[in-house]
Amino acid sequence: MPTTNIDHKELRKQLEDTYFVQWVTKFDSTQGHLQVVGNCVRNRKTGETLFEHKDYGVCQKVCEMLNEGANKC
User: Fold this and answer.
1) What CA–CA distance (Å, rounded) separates 61 from 33?
2) Mean confidence (pLDDT) of the chain
3) Are the beta carbons of 27 and 33 closer than 8 angstroms?
4) SS3 category, 66
5) pLDDT digits (tens, 9 = 90+) for 8-26
6) Which of 1, 27, 64, 65 is deepest in the core (most CB within 10 A)?
7) Distant-in-sequence, close-in-space partners of 20: CB < 8 Å, separation ≥ 6
8) Model pTM greater than 0.85?
């Protein structure tokens, strides 16, 4: 969830949504680097991952559909 140019009311609405977009990362233990390999849509209440894709925009659209278009994810 991007938080640039957002007021506290809009941020609060986004935090109340059931579904949100999160990075999927991979850790390279030999080099000590954390790499973003994609994004996923998760359920805030259960922690379950519902959808995974490399493109953030695709995950954002799925998240908005799951949240019934109430707020941007």
Assistant:
1) 29
2) 86
3) yes
4) helix
5) 777 676 677 889 999 999 9
6) 64
7) 1, 14, 41, 42, 44, 63, 73
8) no
Domain contains 36:
yes
Q: Is the dihedral of CA 19, 48, 58, 20 positive or negative?
A: positive
DSSP letter for 38, please.
E
The one-letter amino acid code at 26 reads K
Element (H, E) at 43: strand 33-43
3 domain residue, yes or no: no
Nearest-CA neighbor of 67 among 12, 9, 23, 17?
Answer: 17
Give residue 12's domain range: 8-66
- Candidates 20, 72, 25; CA nearest to 48 is 20
Structure tokens at 11: 């941020």
